[in-house]
Structure formats: structure tokens, C-alpha cells
Amino acid sequence: MSAPPVGAADGIPPGIDIPFNRPSLVGDELRYMSEAIAAGRISGDGDFSRRCHELLERELGAPRVLLTTSCTHALEMCSLLLDLAPGDEVIVPSFTFVSTANAFALRGARPVFADVRPDTLNLDESLLPDLIGPRTRAIVAVHYAGVGCEMAAILALAGRHGLAVVEDNAHGLFGKHGGTKLGTFGGLATLSFHETKNVTCGEGGALIVNDARYLERAETVRQKGTNRSQFFRGMVDKYSWVDLGSSYLPSDMLAAFLLAQLEARDRIQAARRRLWQRYEQELASWAAANGARLPVVPPGCEQPFHLFYLLLPSLAARQALIAHLRGHGILAAFHYVPLHLSAYGRQAAARWRDCPVAADVADRLVRLPLFYDLSAADQSRVIAAVQAFQP
Ligand SMILES: *Cc1c(COP(=O)(O)O)cnc(C)c1O
Fold first, then answer.
1. Residue 40 burial by CB count (10 A; 0-12/13-18/19+): exposed, middle or buried?
2. What atom of ligand 1 comes closest to residue 72's alpha carbon?
3. Cα(234) to centroid of ligand 1, in Å?
4. Please, which pLDDT band fits residue 4 given cuts at 50, 70 and 90?
């Protein structure tokens, strides 16, 4: 029996029959969730959470991976673990999701927005020396589309200035740069299992702890500031409030869903690779003829096929393409509102400066539908509709 798509009819506007994203059941999700319920253990850190932790630690070769309720929350844990305080500064790319900066602003740290490289749309490492000041505490690298940032340069500079490096690896699970897995470069890194990501449980995330200095406090921060994890390992005879923290553990029911997806990772990645490569092959000549460009994946970057975008020649052309696709029943999406131009980003920034590349690509970028069970026939329709469009 083939599994029905999850929520196939939800959140899709009228007239759209090829959604931008659709989460799917890919394996044992429902069986594992039933098992979690039958075992009478659905709060956090049950058996399924432990199995997710072990699988991700093995897969990444990281000392510790802890499931969280979201990538946003994993980033907030980073902010607590770095002991950020008002007046501290954190360098983040302008072209990213809000949480990359908001998690640090919550602790009173001020973002310093870095512009991005025109090729990979990753934080432009050549700008960093100018952005580092006496109050800088950390650099947050976002591997946009799972294409790795120039981590050697970023780590070297951070090392010289005594800065922490956090990887927001929401896009990059299973990606590599120079043979090293994304999410294992920084002292801390985060993952997202939101329904738009390659592997999902609806809402979820993880903290990857690469630097042993953070191991013990990471558990405490995640367990409401208590030493509950040590208590369960028999290391202390009662547990109590020992530090600042919050509740960052997902229910074991979500971990059960997630484990099934993680176990099906090869199937998920193979499907996404096939779709991504077909878009690239079949849209290359259209792009060249129409002043558009496809994603750039430099040598040494093994990307996890998280998203496929087109950069149109102008904002007007991008909006026209989205409207054209919509007319064909296809939903395409754009992102991000550059943080340095956002209402809160403007006032939160430690030192506002323009990020012209981020502003430019945010106007011109469009993402095409890309999800596990996008059929070949539906992808053909998307490709044909793009090819019929002239900016
Ligand atoms: C999706 C995403 C997040 C937020 O993930 P959640 O799990 O929804 O909190 C953060 N950063 C980036 C770059 C993302 O794409």
C-alpha cells in the first residue's frame, strides 16, 4: 500500500495543482509513532530520540547531536551556550532566514550584517575583516542551499580573533565542503527538520556540538537549566536548577516520525538529486538565452539538493515568472527579505551598512517546486512552463 502524502490538500492556494513543497511519508513514520504511543513514552528524550541522536552522530561523525523543537531553538541554545550579553556583536549574513539573527538578538547581542557572495549567495568571507570589532563574539555561517561556505577562511579568521563559529546548517544536512561534512566545522551547528527541509518531522531541529567545551552545558540548557540528563545517567542523586535554560526537547512522537525519515535518507536524497539535476540540465539553455542564471556549486562542494533557484534579470521579470507559473497551476516561491533591510534588522544592527548583493539577489531569485514525490510528469510541466516564459 502506498502512503498518502501528508497534508496534500493543506495550504495550497486555489488553482494550484503543483505545490511549492509537499511533505511525504517515506517509510516507517506512522508505525514508529504508534510504537512510541504504545510504549507509553511520548515526552522528550525517549527511545526514538536516542535513536535519532545516534544515527546523526554516526552519520556526521560529531561527538554529540541533540534533537530540538526547531532550528530556531537550536540557534537560541547556541546564544545561551556562548553566554552572549547586551553589547556583544554577532556577524550574520543578511541573506538568510530571520532566526539566524533573532536567536542572538534575544540575548541582547546585536547583529552585524554581512553581504553575500554573488556566486553561492553565502556570507562573503572577504568582508569579514572589516566587520570584526572589539565587541564581536561570533560568526554565524549559513550554508545557503547546502553549498558550503568558505569555512577554512572563516575558521582561520575566527581563530585569530578568538571568535566562536556557529553553522546554521538548516539547508545543509548531508552536504560536504572539501570532503568535510557541513555542520562539523563550527564549535556549534544547527539543523532544521521543518516541513520545507529535506528530512522533516513538521517542526524540529537539532544542535550539533562539535566543541567538547559545550557538551555538558548543552544538555543543561536543553533541559530547562537543570542537570536532569546527568541525573538519568546516575551521575548526581537529584536534579535541580543549575544554569539558564529552556525546554528545547521535542516529543518522542516527533522523534519517531523523524527517525523514519532519517532512515530513508538515501531514498530522499536520491529523489531530490534526480529532480535537481533534471532542472539544471533542462533549464540551462533557457537560462543562457534569457539572461537568467542557475545555482553555482563550486568544485569541492557536495550539495544536498535542498533547493533549486533561478536568478532572473530583474525584479519585474521574477514577479512575472511567478505569475506566469501560477497561471499554469504551479506555485514558485521567493525569499528572503534581506535582514539588513527588514524593519527590526535596521534598528537591531550594531552598525548598519548596505549589503547590495543580498538586496539584489533577494529581488531576482525564485525557487521552483522541489520535493520528494514531485512526479516526473509534474516536473515536466514546471520545466515546460519556465521554458515558455521570456522575461
Ligand atoms: C528553515 C531555516 C531556519 C529555521 O528553521 P526552523 O526549524 O523552522 O526553526 C533557520 N535558518 C535557515 C537558514 C533556515 O532555512
1. exposed
2. 9
3. 35
4. very low
| CATH placement of domain 29-263 | 3.40.640.10
Expressed in angstroms and rounded, the spacing between residue 77 Cα and the centre of ligand 1 is: 14
- Beta-carbon contacts of residue 128 (< 8 Å; ≥ 6 apart): 91, 114, 139, 153, 154, 157
Cβ atoms of residues 135 and 89 within 8 Å: yes
Residue 99 in contact with ligand 1 by CB distance below 6 A: yes
pLDDT value for 257: 98
Please measure the distance between the N-terminal and C-terminal CA atoms of the chain and give it in whole angstroms: 44
Closest residue by Cα to atom 14, ligand 1, is: 170
Global pTM value: 0.96
The reported pLDDT for the residue numbered 10 is 52
Q: Say how far apart CA 71 and CA 12 lie, in whole Å.
A: 24
Element (H, E) at 112: strand 110-114
Rounded CA gap, 122 and 270, in Å?
25
User: Identical fold at 8-21+265-387 and 29-263?
Assistant: no
Whether 110 contacts 349, CB under 8 Å: yes
Environment class of residue 353 by beta-carbon count within 10 Å: exposed (0-12), middle (13-18) or buried (19+)? middle
Ligand 1 pocket member 171 (CB < 6 A): yes
- Using the Cα atoms of residue 379, residue 381, residue 278 and residue 170 in order, give the sign of their dihedral: negative
By most ligand atoms within 8 Å of CB, the mutation choice from 99, 149, 169, 365 for ligand 1 is 99
To test the ligand 1 pocket, which listed residue (192, 336, 337) has its Cβ within 8 A of the most ligand atoms? 192
Q: How far apart are CA 47 and CA 61, in angstroms?
A: 21
Q: What is the topology classification, in CATH, of domain 8-21+265-387? A: Aspartate Aminotransferase, domain 1 (3.90.1150)
70 CB near ligand 1 (under 6 Å): yes
Tell me the per-residue pLDDT of 228-272, one tens digit each, with 9 for 90 and over.
888 888 888 888 999 999 999 999 999 999 999 999 999 999 999
The percentage of residues in the chain with a pLDDT greater than 70, rounded to a whole number, is 97
CA 342 and chain centroid, separation:
20
| Pairing outcome for strands 176-177 and 301-302 | antiparallel
- pLDDT at residue 7 is higher than 60: no
Query: Is any ligand 1 atom within 6 A of the Cβ of residue 145?
Result: no
Domain range annotation of the chain: 8-21+265-387, 29-263
